[in-house]
Design goal:
444 residues; mainly alpha; Cytochrome Bc1 Complex, Chain C; Cytochrome Bc1 Complex, Chain D, domain 2; two-stranded antiparallel sheet; 18 helices; binds heme C
Length: 444
């Protein structure tokens, strides 16, 4: 039966397409490092599949985006899991695609005849970053909103055409409804339309030229093994592991609770997602009319062009890392610089959602709202139509109690009512409690 189906399919679809892909041989040394490419592909598929399902319930309008994401997370069957996979998948993709690129570079696999494979790969990395940047805004949280304000403002500092570029990216003067619509369209229409043909071309070229033998082994008699089942089993195992890690992160870390975007906030300290921290940090060293354009335009453009044209600039056939000291040193410097900038960005940047500049009452209230969200008060209380009505509605709680009373009710509900069923929030720090109370007092 199986073989009849196979025969039927082969006659219609042609043997080489599937059979050729599976039955090809790969160099014997092919192993775990080579699974990074297929893991990247797998993670892309996870993003596409989860993204399609998320889009079913998402609404790209500032009034609805945040609520639609809450709805997906809390109401849609498995919505929280899907969102978790998509959220962590984005970070995983950035990591794995970076490692894949590094592996290909160290092995010298970009050398003839695989130059175009490398070039399409560089474009794919850029696409992944574009996906990450546009997708970040979509939940319309305070953090994602202000990260986008800053990210797009950088575009505006490009000399001469900056103003025009900013208008193009934002679609309007400030980040607003048009920006959200535009980012969504780019995220789900434009980028996939570019991604799919590029991935196909990249895979076709991988298939066409085969896996590069280990550096230095080109001249010797090449031992090979079959792609199927040997290498495919490794590929599947690593992809499965990646999926388990995503599930694990979703289950253990969940999705960070963030508050709704407030475009009128003047105190919020923006902070980009971790994979853009290096660039954010880098720009801190390029300030002023002369240096800023260098940091914003010249340097990134130079790096991208250098990467893209690398196979044409470095045409020596030598692939052994030991014989390519400069290339390996450059990779080392690049990795250390990226890691260092990311680290500095993480420790120096005031953590926007944690400590807004103190002293302003607006900042305190915002912080209080975050404490409120983070402690899941909405799982028992309703505020302005949001939440669950297990406990009393809090929409006007600020007009009913004083600050001290509120603090006591939260720290020790039993003190007011021995039968209280609200858990005591006695682990809140004094600062968090003060902020929380400040926020509750605004509910009048
Ligand atoms: C597990 C459900 C639950 C959670 C979570 C919860 N509450 Fe409550 N809360 C209640 C209930 C029920 C009451 C009514 C008094 C009682 O039975 O304890 C209440 C009462 C209150 C009151 C007094 C309201 C009034 O009108 O008298 C305030 C204020 C309050 N909660 C604030 C909070 C805050 C702030 C949080 C988050 C830090 C929170 N609650 C989390 C269940 C909860």
């Amino acid at each position: 039966m199986g073989s009849r189906v196979q025969g039927w399919l082969r006659e219609r679809l042609g043997g080489p397409l599937f059979g050729g892909f599976l039955n090809r041989t790969v160099p014997e040394e092919t192993g775990l490092p080579h699974t990074l490419g297929s893991a990247t592909l797998f993670l892309l598929v996870v993003q596409v599949v989860t993204g399609i399902v998320l889009a079913m319930d998402y609404s790209a309008a500032p009034e609805h985006a945040y609520d639609s994401v809450l709805f997906i997370t809390n109401q849609v069957v498995l919505g929280g899991v899907l969102r978790g996979l998509h959220h962590w998948g984005a970070s995983a993709l950035v990591v794995v695609v970076g490692l894949h690129m590094l592996r290909v570079f160290l092995w010298g696999s970009y050398k003839p005849p695989r130059e175009v494979t490398w070039m399409t790969g560089v474009l794919l990395v850029l696409l992944v970053m574009a996906f990450a940047f546009t997708g970040y805004l979509l939940p319309w949280t305070q953090r994602s909103y202000w990260a986008t304000v800053v990210g797009t403002r950088i575009v505006g500092t490009v000399p001469v055409i900056g103003g025009w570029l900013l208008q193009l990216v934002r679609g309007e003067a400030e980040v607003g409804p048009v920006t959200l619509a535009r980012f969504y369209a780019i995220h789900v229409l434009l980028l996939p339309a570019l991604l799919v043909p590029l991935v196909i071309l990249h895979l076709y070229l991988v298939y066409r030229h085969g896996i590069a033998p280990a550096p230095g082994a080109e001249a010797t008699v090449r031992k090979t093994k079959r792609f199927y089942p040997d290498q495919l089993a490794d590929d599947l195992a690593v992809s499965l592991l990646a999926l388990l890690v995503l599930f694990g992160l979703t289950a253990i870390r969940g999705i960070p609770t963030e508050v709704r975007a407030d475009p009128s906030s003047t105190t919020y300290v923006p902070r980009p997602e971790w994979y853009f921290l290096f660039f954010f940090q880098l720009l801190k060293y390029f300030q002023g009319p002369v240096w800023e354009p260098i940091g914003v335009v010249v340097l990134p453009l130079a790096v991208v062009l250098l990467l893209f044209f690398l196979p044409l600039l470095d045409q020596r056939p030598e692939r052994r890392p030991r014989r390519r000291p400069y290339a390996i040193a450059a990779a080392g410097v690049a990795v250390v610089a990226l890691a260092g900038l990311t680290y500095l960005g993480a420790v120096q940047q005031p953590p926007g959602t944690r400590t807004p500049p103190s002293g302003s009452s607006q900042a305190l209230v915002e912080r209080g709202h975050e404490v409120f969200v983070a402690n899941k008060c909405l799982s028992c209380h309703v505020v302005k139509g949001e939440g669950t009505d297990f406990g009393p509605e809090l929409t006007h709680v600020g007009s009913r109690y004083t600050a001290d009373r509120l603090a006591t009710l939260i720290r020790n509900p039993m003190s007011a009512n021995p039968q209280a069923s609200m858990p005591a929030f006695d682990k809140l720090s004094d600062a968090d409690l003060q902020a929380l109370v400040a926020y509750l007092l605004t509910l009048k």
